[in-house]
Amino acid sequence: MDPKTQTPENPEAQTQASDDQTQQLAIVPPIASISLSLSQILPTHFLLPPKISSLLAPHPSSKVKIPSQISSLTHLSISSTLSPPQKPFFKSTISSNPLQYPLSLNPRRPSDPSNAAALRRASIVWFRNDLRVHDNETLNSANNESLSVLPVYCFDPRDYGKSSSGFDKTGPYRATFLIESVKDLKKNLQAKGSDLVVRIGRPEAVLAELAKAVGAEAVYAHREVSHDEVKAEDKIEVAMKDEGVEVKYFWGSTLYHVDDLPFKLEGMPTNYGGFREKVQGLEVRKTIAALEQLRGLPTKGDVEAGEVPSLVDLGLSPTATMSKDGKAAANASLVGGETEALQRLRKFAAECQAQPPKGTKDGSNDSIYGANFSCKISPWLAMGCLSPRSMFDELKKSASRTISAASNRKDGGSGPADTGMNWLMYELLWRDFFRFITKKYSSAKQQNAAPVTACTGAVA
Questions:
Q1: Photolyase/cryptochrome alpha/beta domain spans which residues (predicted)?
Q2: CB–CB of 421/367 below 8 Å?
């Protein structure tokens, strides 16, 4: 009964009011317990501990307005205390759908990942041409911003079969190298407490299904540069938008970061000389160290990791990688994966440092060291088993051990490690040029533009 409607002439109303006050005093302890449960299910910036007692205390001259979201959750908490829930408390009050409750739409996400209240419940890392755990901003960001992470790799059927010209879109040697790289990535993720979910299917369909199954709030991925890859990104954004899932893209396939370029891609020089002149003096970003331990997989959905497919599963013949005598072809010596890539890089850097100076009669030094005078590390760069920045850093460490000695030499010449460093920078710059120029012309707006005039050059 509303106290404002009571009159002094109604003694029964006064008696009823006193009884109501007695009942209100009797339920004070449950209210205190409710305030404690609210602090566990709501982010800390919604409830301030110093003001909780003031909300519970009577205010004769002022009225305290409690936000509707908090009051609704209080009602849910009261109902859950009357009958013991079958599931954990937080699951009975917060839906796995991030769009059902406005409370979880835009939570504060401070730079300190230790604040669990600000982390996403689950996220997906979509591996593409970045099959590594070192220097992987996508993987690190997802682990720092989420309570659970689901790493995924999709073998897209559109990348296999025959092209319109009758050739294999992906040949057996490349497919074998890719399969080995995915297996190695899966092993490295498992060693850090995670795993890799492998599927054969179109990414936009696979990721949408997995995001719905685990209740993912975001998909993390690296951007690519070719036309088909950009189209795939557009399809992912449309599919994730329908599911209410955020898509976060990162850049990690070049030596120089796209955001550090002194020009916009639309105004990028179409020849290597102009590109090299503009990027001269740019600083290479530092590599990102691999995390010692990764977040676990989401518990919701009970998603199976799946097996890495074989050549037969991808529609290719295993005998195509064999020579006529039945033995493995020479290409089989190229083993895919991040583990093999790092070993080859360290070996090449050591060879550059150990080789004696070799120069021509005029004192110049243009020799290139390594197996057959090349690092032969292009396949691992193409699959993202190794990042260009990692190559740069490793060779820079080797060069720094001899640069000081070379600077003190009377002839002022450069040592072998310094020469390898200069050569590697030249090759990586060529690679950056082609990737940036491809990105420039891969957008829909640039399809009718005149193609770039390619110059002769080697690409790492």
A1: 121-255
A2: no
